[in-house]
Design brief:
This protein is of the alpha+beta class and 207 residues long. It is 57% helix and 9% strand. The protein is built from 8 helices and 4 strands, in the order βαβαββαααααα. Helix 1 (12-21) crosses helix 6 (156-170), helix 4 packs antiparallel against helix 5 (122-140) and helix 4 runs parallel beside helix 6 (156-170).
């Protein structure tokens, strides 16, 4: 049985969502990061930085959401193109979404609530907002919310983009209306709803 180490409203949602799209069996270990579980020796042996997500399946231990989701999709032969060229395009988008579009939002979050107050910087927040809008403009040069990123089929690239845009919406960052509508449609997929529910239930049932 695959175990997903998760923390609600984090990148672990995209792993749970991937698992639900692929209709795979898994269990969730909901981490109590606020209580320091992420820094325990047992969990640091799984994830060296003590963050979520991570998965354990037999002898396999993986951290980093893009690597986990890419592995699951490749193993099942779904949520990704079949051709080598298509897979290269998928990797291109996953890289862009995690390093260019998502990172400014995480920087904004860190300097808003995640870091200790003495480590937060208002000027950094303003720069992060500017960087996000610049990356959003780069996205729009290739995609404005018509169909899916890689063609006719929903892939990991769409899943990642939907979550990132959802974070931007919660952070009250301006999003073009076409992308906002696309985001709502993607986040309304039943697999996403099931993933949210399972993560929430696991968190509520922590010992």
């Amino acid at each position: 049985m695959l175990t997903l180490y998760s923390y609600p409203n984090s990148r672990s949602l995209r792993v749970a969502w991937t698992l639900e799209e692929l209709e795979l069996d898994y269990r969730i270990h909901s981490l109590d990061l606020k209580a320091g579980e992420g820094r325990s020796p047992e969990y640091l042996a799984i994830h060296p930085d003590g963050k979520a997500p991570a998965i354990v399946e037999g002898e396999l231990v993986l951290f980093e959401s893009s690597a986990i989701c890419r592995y699951l999709a490749a193993r099942e032969g779904r949520l990704m193109p079949s051709s080598l060229e298509g897979q290269a395009q998928l990797d291109q988008w996953l890289s862009f979404l995690t390093t260019e579009l998502e990172q400014p939002l995480w920087t904004l979050a860190k300097h808003t609530f995640a870091l200790p107050e003495e480590r937060r910087c208002e000027d950094v927040k303003q720069t992060a907002q500017w960087e996000f809008q610049r990356a959003l403009g780069a996205l729009q040069r290739r995609f404005e919310g018509q169909g899916w990123l890689l063609g006719d089929d929903f892939t990991l690239a769409d899943l990642f983009l939907a979550q990132v845009l959802g974070w931007a919406h919660k952070a009250q960052q301006p999003i073009p209306s076409s992308l906002a509508r696309w985001m709502q449609e993607a986040l309304a997929r039943p697999a996403c709803a099931r993933a949210r529910e399972r993560e929430a239930q696991a968190a509520a049932n922590r010992p």
